[in-house]
VanZ family protein
Amino acid sequence: MNTKTILVDKKSPILYYTPVISWGVFVLVMSLLPSRDLPDALIEVSDLFIHACIYVAWTMLACWGYVQVHQRMKQSAYMVILCCALVFGLGVEFAQKYLTDYRHFEWADILANSTGSIVGLGITFILSRRKK
């Protein structure tokens, strides 16, 4: 068996979770930048709407990775992904509070992150049901 066959045949979980991990790193970096360094287009849109959209994308990428590895979403996977999204969002807020002096911990951001995560899971659930 050659290397090409191994890469094609074997499903490496890290390969399929790379998009959500990359998105998470991007979100963390952007969240820790001073707001003056962010693109003007982002500042013009509602901050809470942006938070929700970011977490819709995060949860959908996590679900996509899960499905690529396990073939289908299990009910427990939805809860694990939701918990991971909530912990990640909370961690980002604490990082803003303790690692910067120009960003702040905001409960409204956590609510928007949570809402986005739930919406992302809802969209994924609906899309997975339509494929059957």
